[in-house]
Amino acid sequence: MAKRQKHATMEVSPSASEIKPAKGKLGIMIPGMGAVATTFVAGVEAVRKGFAKPIGSLTQMGTIRLGKRTDARSPKIKEFVPLAGLDDLVFTGWDIFEDDMYSAASKAGVLEKELLDKVKPFLSKIKPRKAVFDRNYVKLIDGPNVKKGKNKMDLAEQVRDDIREFRKSSGASRLVTMWCGSTESYIEPTAAHQSVKAFEKALTKNDANIAPSMIYAYASLKEGVPFANGAPNLTVDLPAMRELSRENNAPISGKDFKTGQTLIKTILAPGFKARMIGLNGWFSTNILGNRDGEVLEDPGSFKTKEESKLSVLEHILQPGLYPELYGNFTHKVRINYYPPRGDNKEGWDNIDIFGWLGYPMQIKVDFLCRDSILAAPIVLDLVLFMDLAARSTELKGIGIQEWLSFYFKSPMTLPGLYPEHDLFIQLMKLKNTLRHLRGEELITHLGLEYYD
Ligand SMILES: NC(=O)c1ccc[n+]([C@@H]2O[C@H](COP(=O)([O-])OP(=O)(O)OC[C@H]3O[C@@H](n4cnc5c(N)ncnc54)[C@H](O)[C@@H]3O)[C@@H](O)[C@H]2O)c1
């Protein structure tokens, strides 16, 4: 038998690629200054001031193992790769309502008044810029703080002006746009989305298939600014945006933050599959009472969300490979707007599984979660990692940052590549990407060399 290779557990990564240092301020621009955005910004300020800890953030709390288990090298991620420091973050945003971040956070009702008051001077200075808004895309809310323009190209130019103005007035050396706006109505890609040329023509012609989120995305990418999408809207998941992203070295990622029920689903389902436990059905229902819940009462917005939530199990369980286990399961997802709960969502799951000889069993999950508390650390990690990608010679020109799938319910991939939904594979992909960027060996967990 051939002699076992010394480093059988490790694939050697090419030498480190170049990453520019995180010098200067990082400007974070947020379309949609609602519950998630304000919980994120208030949280960053609270952490900076030492009032609270950044729980749930991989960039702030996570470590990364390097080399062999016996090497005892596990630096913090933020010490291993050059990320912007929290003190260097500056913020702006757009919203259809005129509330500054303090009033918006107070209305969202996620954080208690005592904590909000401690960061009030900072939050109340962040006032929303006028939004690009179209009620055909978000039917159940309307507000006064909206841009007017002769066509959609004109609106895109106005957003580009906002971006340039913020770059100048904040003194930021780099920018990232993070969509935290409402979920837009479901649409399928059309001819207008197939190339930058077609998209620009459609902007000028006021094509109905161009949603507001796409206008922010277009403006950002044209300005060379990375764009991440926290909602399930198509937004940057389009050929035109991939083209623009690559042309302008402005990374893109999405879609739909993986929090709450879907997070739990992508933790449990890989476990069932790992043990070859079958699934007859998974019924998920939610009650929530925040503005997101209100917007999702509209069937168009709900359909966008439902598509994003439903795809998860199919991809994790691979019914094509395991027809006896997963060939015939029923998967239903319901969201009910129930104002008394505010942002504190309750997600119930009834899971009908089967084991040895086909004997049925049930699992019930009742997750009393806080949506924006789960989403805020994801926003932080995403903006820091998107900025890292934009500084990396290897990542900035590739378009979709698939290594950030870890954060999304509906990870974007190139056409023809199926998305990876298993949270643990996603984490391995993310950490191996960081190891690769720094020229460290990739970890495969084989571990045979310890027994040589
Ligand atoms: N909280 C979570 O766990 C979670 C998880 C996954 C996805 N999301 C998505 O994140 C987004 C934000 O969630 P939220 O709870 O903060 O919702 P929210 O309703 O509190 O905030 C959304 C804000 O976007 C604004 N808005 C809508 N259209 C806009 C536009 N065109 N331009 C600028 N502003 C616009 C609204 O006025 C509102 O203030 C939603 O799309 C939601 O579905 C949230």
Description of the molecule:
The chain has 452 residues and is an alpha/beta fold. The protein is 37% helix and 15% strand. α7 (152-170) crosses α8 and α7 packs across α9 (212-222). The two termini are 14 Å apart. 46% of the residues are buried. Mean pLDDT is 94; it is low at 1-10. The structure holds nicotinamide-adenine-dinucleotide (NAD).
CATH superfamily of the largest domain: NAD(P)-binding Rossmann-like Domain
Count of domain modules: 2
Mean pLDDT: 94
Q: Which CATH class of the largest domain is shown?
A: Alpha Beta
Small ligands present: nicotinamide-adenine-dinucleotide
The CATH architecture category of the largest domain equals 3-Layer(aba) Sandwich
Helical fraction:
25-40%
Task: Report the total helices.
Answer: 16
Provide the CATH topology of the largest domain. Answer: Rossmann fold
Determine the structural class based on helices, strands and strand pairing: alpha/beta
The number of E-state strands comes to: 12
Terminus-to-terminus distance = 14 Å
Order of helices and strands: EEHHHEHHHEHEHHEHEHEHHHEEEHHE
Largest sheet, in brief, is:
6 strands, parallel
Poorly predicted regions are 1-10
Summarize the structure.
The chain is of the alpha/beta class and 452 residues long. It contains 16 helices and 12 strands.
Which helices and strands appear, and what pairs or packs with what?
Blueprint: E1 10-11, E2 25-31, H1 35-48, H2 58-61, H3 77-80, E3 89-95, H4 101-108, H5 113-118, H6 120-123, E4 129-130, H7 152-170, E5 172-179, H8 196-204, H9 212-222, E6 227-229, H10 239-247, E7 252-253, H11 260-274, E8 278-288, H12 291-295, H13 299-317, H14 323-326, E9 330-337, E10 346-354, E11 360-368, H15 371-391, H16 423-437, E12 442-443
Parallel strand pairs: 2-3, 2-5, 3-4, 5-6, 6-7, 8-9
Antiparallel strand pairs: 1-12, 8-10, 10-11
Helix pairs in contact: 1-4, 1-15, 7-8, 7-9, 8-10, 11-13
Bound molecules: nicotinamide-adenine-dinucleotide (NAD).
The site of nicotinamide-adenine-dinucleotide has 37 residues, from helix 1, strand 3, helix 12 and helix 15.
